[in-house]
Amino acid sequence: MTDTHESAAETDTAAVMTGQKITIDELATELSAIDLRLRQLARAAEVPQSPVELLDIINSLRSTASSVRENSDRMSLLARIVDGDVPVSTRFRDSADPWGVAARGTDRPDYGGPAIVPTVWQLLRLAEDAKRPGCDTTTYSEAMKGIGIGWESKAATARRDRERNAAVAAEVLTLTCATCEATDGQQCKTKTGWVADRPHAPRQRQAEANVDERLGYLGANPVDVPEARV
């Protein structure tokens, strides 16, 4: 695919996970390794072979390392929550709303809908709330039982949308337009011969149908994407 803002190297994630999907613990460990490498680079940059003052670069590396370390620590705690080592509250403290399986079919108008799939910050807050005396607690696995089949993150959905749009744009140029008779590699034209930046609707629809059939999509929604399964 083109125009996805990702290089081939970025899409090769085999080196950072042992299974088909990365675990939260693997995320924590990989982030920890990046943190250490950045701090090592900052230390090495104090004595470069060439006489160049790298103080700004060193400070930037150490600042980035601190941010990465915070995320690593956060993922480490999250891994313990997901593994069930840390209890979590069955409800959000501020609203008493449930989450996970219990949130299915409920309304949560003040917070953008029910938290069927909780965010990192929600889980960390639920773990903190679980420390309160008398709080009803559960485990992540119990609260999320049965959730995850066919689910993917918002970031993955956005990426797939970009990839689909790029594929459709390329597919359009392989089709002959029934309206203006633009052929392979040609953009559509107006009745007076002006080149248009947007293809005619029938050509666009056919391109979308061809791409969706190849990708296993229903519109922009993946209906058979193996990576989205648990």
Question: Could you outline the blueprint of secondary structure elements for this entry?
Answer:
Elements: H1 8-11, H2 24-44, H3 55-83, E1 88-89, H4 120-129, E2 137-138, H5 140-143, H6 154-172, H7 201-215, E3 217-218, E4 221-222
Antiparallel strand pairs: 1-2, 3-4
Helix pairs in contact: 2-3, 3-4, 6-7
Unreliable runs: 225-230
Task: Characterize the largest beta sheet: strand count, sense, and whether it forms a barrel.
Answer: 2 strands, antiparallel
- Find the structural class using helix and strand composition: mainly alpha
The average pLDDT value, as a whole number, equals 89
Strand order of the largest sheet: 1-2
Number of helices: 7
Helix content: 40-55%
Tell me the series of helices and strands, N- to C-terminal: HHHEHEHHHEE
What does the model show?
- The chain is mainly alpha-helical.
- Helix content is 44%, strand content 3%.
- It is built from seven helices and four strands.
- It has helices at residues 8-11, 24-44, 55-83, 120-129, 140-143, 154-172, 201-215; strands at 88-89, 137-138, 217-218, 221-222.
- The protein has a two-stranded antiparallel ribbon with strand order 1-2.
- The radius of gyration is 25 Å and the shape is flat.
- It starts with 7 loop residues before the first helix and ends in an 8-residue tail after the last strand.
